[in-house]
Amino acid sequence: MSHAIQERPVTVTPRRSLSHARLPRWTPAAVAVGSVAVGSGIGLAAGWHSKVQWGLISALVFVLATYAITTKVEGSRQAKDRVATSLIWVSFVLAVVPLLSLAWVTISKGLEVLDGYFLSHSMNGVLDAEAGGGVYHALLGTIEQVGIATLIAAPIGLLTAVYLVEYGGGKLAQAVTFFVDVMTGIPSIVAGLFVLATWNLMLGFGPSGFAGAMALAILMMPVVVRSTEEMLKLVPNELREASLALGVPKWRTILKVVLPTAIGGITTGVMLAVARITGETAPVLLLVFGTKLINPNPFEGAQSSLPLYVYEQYAVGTDASVARAWAAALVLIAFVMILNLVARGIARWKAPKTGR
After folding, report:
1. What is the pLDDT of residue 350?
2. pLDDT band at 351, cuts 50/70/90?
3. Under a CB-based contact definition with an 8 Å cutoff, are residues 213 and 278 in contact?
4. pTM of the model
5. CA–CA–CA angle 34, 39, 45 (5° rounding)
6. Which of 11, 29, 181, 338 is the most exposed place for a label (fewest CB within 10 A)?
7. Residue-level pLDDT at 296
C-alpha cells in the first residue's frame, strides 16, 4: 500500500542580529569640535563679543547633534543614553572652565610681582600707591589666625561628632544637631559681630589675631562636625562589634578602631573647613583691624591677613597696589593647596594598612 507523501514548503525565518550599528569611538570628539566651530561661527555672525555665549551655544549644539546622529545610526534608546552622558560632560566643562580661567588669570598676574622680596617684606614705610613692599606681615597673620582657629575648632568638632555618632541619641543630641545645622548657615559677619560684642566690647580686649581666630573657629566648627559625623557613620559596625567582643572598652574602640578607619575623610573635612575660613575677610576686618607692620604676637595688637591685604590693596586702585593684590591672592591659593597636600599625606600615612 503506497502512501502519497505531500511535501510542504519550508519557510526560512531570517535571523535577526542582536548587534546594531555603532558609531566610531572618535565620534564624540568630532561632534565636540564641530559644535565649537558652529558655536563660534554663530557668535561671530551675531556679533557677540562674550566667549561665554559662544560656549553655551556650542554646548547646546553638541547635545542636539549627539542626539540626532546617534538616533540616526544607533536608535533612539542609545541616543538617550549618549545625551545623558553628553550633559554630564557639558556640566563638567562648564564647572572646570571658570576654575581654570580664574587660576590662569591669578597665576599670570600674580607672578609679575611675586618673588622672594615680596614674601619676606612688609608694607612698613611703603605707601599703598607706590611700588614695592611685600606680604610677609599678612602671610604671618594668616598662618597664626588659621592655626589658632584650627586648634580651637578641630578638637571640639571632632569630639562633638564622636558624641553624636557613638553616644548621642537623646534630646541633647537632637539639640546639638539642630544648633550645628543653624551654625552652618551663619554669615561670617555675624560671627565677627558676636566676638566683637563679647570679647572686645564686653570684656574690653582690643583688636588682635586671637579675636579673629575665635570668629573663624565659629565658622569652622560646624563644617568639622558635619564632615566628621558622616565619616564616622561610614565605619562598619562590624568593626566596633568585633572590638567590643574582645573585651576592649568603648572609648578605646573609638580611639584605636573607629577614628583610624575614618582618618582620611576626617582630615579632608578639616581641610575643607580650613579652606573656607582662610579666605574670610569680614571677621578679620572687624576684629584684627589690619596693619602694615609685622606683629608676630596674635594675642596683642592689630594684625593683618592675606584676604584683608588683598582687599586693601585692590581698593587703592593703582597699578602697583592691584599687582600686589593679585600676588597676595596667588600666595593665598598656594597656601591652601599646600595645606591640602600635607593633609592628604598625613591621612594616607595614618590610614589603616590593607592587604599583606
Report:
1. 66
2. low
3. no
4. 0.79
5. 125
6. 11
7. 92
Cell of 88: 554630564
Cell of 128: 599703598
Q: Does residue 354 register a pLDDT over 70?
A: no
Q: Which amino acid appears at position 109 of this protein?
A: K
Query: Is residue 103 pLDDT above 80, yes or no?
Result: yes
| Average of per-residue pLDDT values in the chain | 86
- In tens, the pLDDT along 185-223 reads 888 899 999 999 999 899 989 899 999 999 999 999 999
Distance CA 241, CA 244 (A): 5
CB burial string 344-353: b at 16+ within 10 A, e below: eeebeeeeee
What's the rounded Cα separation, in Å, for the pair 138 and 119? 10
Of the chain, the percentage scoring pLDDT greater than 70 comes to 92
R_g of the chain, CA atoms, integer Å: 30
- Give the number of other CB atoms < 10 A from CB of residue 115: 11
CA dist 50 and 293 (Å) reads 43
Q: Residue 338's closest CA among 276, 271, 280? A: 271
Whether residue 10 has pLDDT greater than 70: no
What single letter denotes the amino acid at residue 97? V
